[in-house]
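As a warm-up, study this chain.
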Amino acid sequence: MFPGRADQVARARRFAVESLDPGTEARDQVSLLVSEAVTNALLHSSSGRDQGTFEVTYALSGGRIRVEVHDGGAPVAPRRRVHGVDSMTGRGLDLFDAIADRWGFRGDEGGRVVWFELDLRKEMGDGAQAGAVRSRSARP
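Now compare it with the structure written out below.
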């Protein structure tokens, strides 16, 4: 659970990324997608308002990581936006489409969860498996 402030994006990102071994290629992908999901929660839900909070959870199972960002909800569901080339926002769902193996959201104005999954054991060119994971439980 994190306070709903912009300075907490990096803490949330580290929380999820530290679940993976340092050499794991997916660390950068997890970092980017957590940053995007948390930033969206702060900008577009009640999590970014006074006394707001958000929660980040992850699960490692079967060579896959699933990350969920729980926010305070908003009256409008996540949606794609038309953005200009110079626009600083509006690309979040495109990033999830491009990077995540699976992703989605559920919830409403009372609370919403944006989640994504990445396969950590994708085949490399030489037939070796990539994406080792640490076996430890999530921290509160």
